[in-house]
Amino acid sequence: MPALWIAHVTVTDAEAYGKYAELAGPAISKHGGTFIARAGRYVQLEGKERPRNVVAKFPSVEAAVACYNSAEYQEALSHARGASERELLVVETTE
């Protein structure tokens, strides 16, 4: 079953986070992920507001988790740590 990778982000260091974004996109693509939403317009209805919201679709939960744990993504993530406050989850779709 396909899965969605959903990130809610507040960027605190735009320069460092830019390096994360530069490296994360190719890592996500390499693992079969495609972006559905990336920092677009949103309406916060409940919970903590994060101004950057990203959704990527993967072939499976396992593919999304493998991406997260990959050396390429972990290298990208090293630039986001300390440069953002984030929540990230992977959820299986009903397709």
Topology overview:
Layout lengths: L2 E9 L2 H17 L3 E5 L13 E7 L2 H9 L1 H10 L3 E9 L3
Antiparallel strand pairs: 1-3, 1-4, 2-3
Helix pairs in contact: 1-3
Beta-strand percent range: 25-35%
Shape: globular
Count of discrete alpha- or pi-helical segments spanning 4 or more residues: 3
- Report the CATH topology name: Alpha-Beta Plaits
Whole-number total of structural domains: 1
Assembly type of the shown chains?
Answer: single chain
Quickly give the CATH architecture: 2-Layer Sandwich
- The separation of the N and C termini measures 7 Å
How would a textbook summarize the main sheet? 4 strands, antiparallel
What is the class in the CATH system?
Answer: Alpha Beta
C-alpha-based Rg, rounded: 13 Å
Low-confidence stretches: none
Please tally the β strands and state the result.
4
Strands side by side in the biggest sheet: 2-3-1-4
> What fraction, in percent, of the residue positions are helical?
25-40%
InterPro entries: Dimeric_a/b-barrel, DUF1330
Domain DUF1330: 2-93
Pfam families: DUF1330 (PF07045)
Organism: Ruegeria arenilitoris
Which key features would you list for this structure?
95 residues, alpha+beta, Alpha-Beta Plaits, globular, Dimeric_a/b-barrel, DUF1330, DUF1330 domain-containing protein
